[in-house]
Amino acid sequence: MSSGAALPAEFVGGATSSGASMSAPGFAGFADLPLMGELAASLLLAVALAATIGFHPLRQVRARTLEDAEAPRVNVIYATVGAIIGTLVVHYGTLVGFVVFGIGGLMRFRTNTASAAITGRLLISTLIGLCCGLQLPHIAVVATLFSFALLALLERRPACRVVVKGLAAEDLAAAAAAWRRELEAAGCRIVSEEKNFFKLQVAFVFYSAGGEDPDAMAARIEVRIDAALRGATDWEVG
Prior knowledge:
Number of strands: 4
Number of helices: 10
Number of domains: 2
Shape: elongated
Structural class: alpha+beta
Strand order of the largest sheet: 2-3-1-4
Helix content: 55-70%
C-alpha cells in the first residue's frame, strides 16, 4: 500500500486496536507521485491492450451493425474502468472492488441506458464519485483527466449507419456505388456495406469524418446523390 494513502481501517478489513479508524489521505495523496505514475501507466496499458483486441482487423471487417462498430470503443472504456478498479483494489483493499462491482451490477441491470458505451461512461463517473467520497481526490482527478481525453479521442469520429430504402432493383448496385463514393468523398471510413435485393435496400456502417456534425454531414451527402439513387434514408449515429 502506498505511504500516506490508506483508507479507514474498517473499510479495508479491520480496525485499529483502539477502535478508531485510520485517517484517509485526502489531498495529500497528490504528493504520492509513484502511485500517480503507476495509475497513469496502468490506464495507458489497459487502453492499448483493449484497443489491440477491440480494433482487430478481422473484427472490423465483419462488423455489420452500429453495435458492432461501437463495440471496440466499449472494450476500451471498460478496460479503463477495470484499470481504475484494479488500482483501487491493490492500494486500498479488496472490499473496494466488491463495492464497485456491486454498483456496476446495479447500474447495468437496473438503469435503462441506450447503449453499453453509455453504461461504461456512467461506470467511470461512478468510480470518480466513489474516489471523491473515499477521500482519494488524486485518483479521481487522474481518472477524470484520462477519461476526458480518451472519450474525446474515441468519439471524434462517431460510428454511423445509413440504410437506403425504396430503391429499384435495377438501380441497387448503382445506388450502392453512388453512396459509397459520396461517403468516402466526405471523409468517412466505411466499415461494411450490405446490399439486400429482397428488401431493395443497401446499408452502410461507417465512421464519420471528424469535426463535423453527423446531421449536417447526412444532409450534405444526400443532396449530392442523384434523386433516382437517393432512396429513402434511415440514419443512426452511435
